[in-house]
Amino acid sequence: MLKGQPRATSPRPAISPAPGASEVFQLLRDGQPRTRAELAQLTGLARSSVASRVDTLMGLGLVAPYGGAASTGGRPPSLFALNPGARAVVAADIGATHARAILADLSGRELAEERQALTIGDGPDAVLGWLAGTVGTLLARGGLPASELAAIGIGLPGPVEHRTGRPINPPIMPGWDRFDVPARVQESYDVPVLVDNDVNIMALGERSFHWPGTTELMFVKVATGIGAGIISGGSLQRGAQGTAGDLGHVRVAYGGEVVCRCGNTGCLEALAGGPALVAALNERTGGTLTSSQDVIELVRSGDAGAVQVIRQAGRDIGDVLAACVNLINPSVIVIGGSLAQAGEHLLAGIREVVYQRSLPLATEHLRIVPSVAGDRAGVTGAAVLAIDHVLSPESIEAACAALTTG
Fold first, then answer.
1. Which has the higher per-residue pLDDT, 199 or 404?
2. Distance of CA 85 to the CA centre of its chain
3. What is the spatial distance between Cα 151 and Cα 189, in angstroms, rounded to a whole number?
4. N or C: the chain end with fewer CB closer than 10 Å?
5. Structural domain tally of the chain?
6. Is the pTM of this model over 0.90?
């Protein structure tokens, strides 16, 4: 993210776009200002080729002059950097009973925010209708015309076929199965619409802004359900059909015949998900707890029974994560979701089993930590999803080609 902003520039005359400008642009995406000479050295291109590519990127508005570099004699060389204000994206994190949407620039800096209590079970027309209206509100609050909107990123609380943006058999989203989410949103805004499940975008958000140098990371969401976003080799791993990381329906060895909502027995979610913990405490005490938040409040008050239940949930989750550690060898496991608010009791149970049952080499430098982004991980990740699309080599090359025909 830039520490300063590139200088504003006056409109430039029409230019002849240079092919391969995306190669130069990817070096400027990090916001670090560089000279043409530095770019030539990094790419191996001739300075004249770099100059033509920089001119193309400036014509698109994606790159702008940035101050001036120190002179070694003669005229100081010019610096260039990403212009984060060139376009904007909207990011939405839609949960079971809430939604949060933000307007962000191309560096991910938030420009405006809207929150709303809503029910995902009301169906796609109602929820996406709210989103379409909210996009307009955010643009107005940010003082931007709709033409400045480059993409929309959306996180949903269920399995999503990322290629099409359609939810697939989502258990808590009646009416959403195979619904064409991008097409519905594009009725109002003709821009790319990227859709993914909530835990994947949480992994993107947590990693991009709090663990940027980490290439091997798992984000584990512990709430009503339990799932993981897996980043390996620096890239989000969705699997063949987008179901990678569905930890909640991995069978726990001692899960017995506890019935899960998926129809199988002994699933991790049926033992350690929010509703399971509520039921376990009510059975122990004859209580009338109704939500995960009730469990968290008991843990925070020091209730011994609640602490035991949360600690055991951590052990159950750790049992599944130990296998994941041996299989994919992450360097960081981030624990998020509503039940992560229970704090160190949950993490202690997870760490106890993971460090005991995983291979010593796999855990030698492994960190198991609470989420830093908290409830903002999802919307932050949705912004990353949209920005990564807008600034991808393919999108940059397409924009360059459009200059030729525009």
1. 199
2. 21
3. 9
4. C
5. 3
6. no
